[in-house]
């Protein structure tokens, strides 16, 4: 129990909760570890849980009727998910798959409902999580409507730099390894287009590839690409 409390204290998502609220979360939830590639829940599953990603990474995806995968987002430590199906009482609209060995804290709906009644501030954190996803989806729609492949790629790299980047002598190393197909699924373009776009950005000396990691060399010029629209 103490280990879980200590872990939660370090998570920004719960930074405004006091010790009593954190203790309540620990007492009403359970922690489980998942290996890379494991499915937490499938699209159309009707499980009613709120998940907090304590360690690792999880990707949220959707499948078309033809079986084509669309990656909606990659979650990082401190993110909440599963909240959509909690409140509209419909099945999950996405599949949650572990992208990097993960440790999750799970809150069943019935316990969560009682906790929100006792501690309304917890509901604000869930609303914050929903707002974050809504903003992301709005950004993706804007990319699809107004941006070409290069501009979409620049936006994606800038976002990954913020969420998964680490600074290194003025550069940003994106601590996330994705295949060109996975990037294509995120951007809604073909794998060939992703390869051509990455090579174009490398030729322009905006990025490099080092040990399979994308390294942003010139953030300002990437931002200029996205602001040209």
Automatic annotation (TrEMBL):
Keywords: DNA-binding, Transcription, Transcription regulation. Residues 147-220 form the HTH crp-type domain. The keyword NAD does not apply. InterPro entries: cNMP-bd_dom, cNMP-bd_dom_sf, Env_Response_Regulators, HTH_CRP, RmlC-like_jellyroll, WH-like_DNA-bd_sf, WH_DNA-bd_sf. GO terms for cellular component: cytosol. Gene3D superfamilies: Jelly Rolls, Winged helix-like DNA-binding domain superfamily/Winged helix DNA-binding domain. One of its GO terms (molecular function) is DNA binding. Pfam families: cNMP_binding, HTH_Crp_2. Residues 13-133 form the Cyclic nucleotide-binding domain. PANTHER family: CRP FAMILY TRANSCRIPTIONAL REGULATORY PROTEIN, HTH-TYPE TRANSCRIPTIONAL REGULATOR ARCR. This is CRP/FNR family transcriptional regulator, anaerobic regulatory protein.
């Amino acid at each position: 129990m103490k280990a879980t409390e200590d872990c939660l204290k370090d998570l920004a998502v719960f930074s405004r909760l006091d010790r009593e609220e954190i203790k309540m979360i620990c007492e009403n939830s359970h922690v489980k570890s998942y290996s890379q590639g494991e499915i937490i829940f499938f699209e159309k599953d009707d499980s009613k849980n709120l998940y907090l990603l304590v360690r690792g990474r999880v990707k949220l995806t959707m499948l078309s009727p033809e079986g084509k995968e669309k990656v909606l987002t990659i979650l990082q430590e401190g993110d909440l998910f599963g909240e959509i199906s909690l409140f509209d009482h419909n099945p999950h609209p996405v599949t949650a798959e572990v992208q990097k060995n993960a440790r999750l804290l799970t809150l069943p709906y019935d316990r969560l409902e009682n906790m929100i009644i006792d501690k309304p501030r917890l509901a604000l954190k869930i609303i914050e999580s929903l707002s974050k996803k809504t903003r992301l989806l709005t950004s993706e729609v804007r990319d699809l409507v107004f941006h070409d492949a290069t501009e979409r790629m620049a936006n994606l790299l800038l976002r990954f730099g913020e969420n998964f980047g680490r600074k290194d002598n003025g550069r940003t190393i994106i601590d996330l390894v994705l295949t060109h197909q996975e990037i294509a699924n995120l951007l809604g373009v073909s794998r060939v287009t992703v390869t051509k776009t990455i090579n174009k950005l490398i030729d322009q000396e905006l990025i490099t590839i080092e040990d399979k990691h994308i390294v942003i060399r010139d953030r300002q010029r990437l931002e200029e690409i996205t602001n040209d629209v």
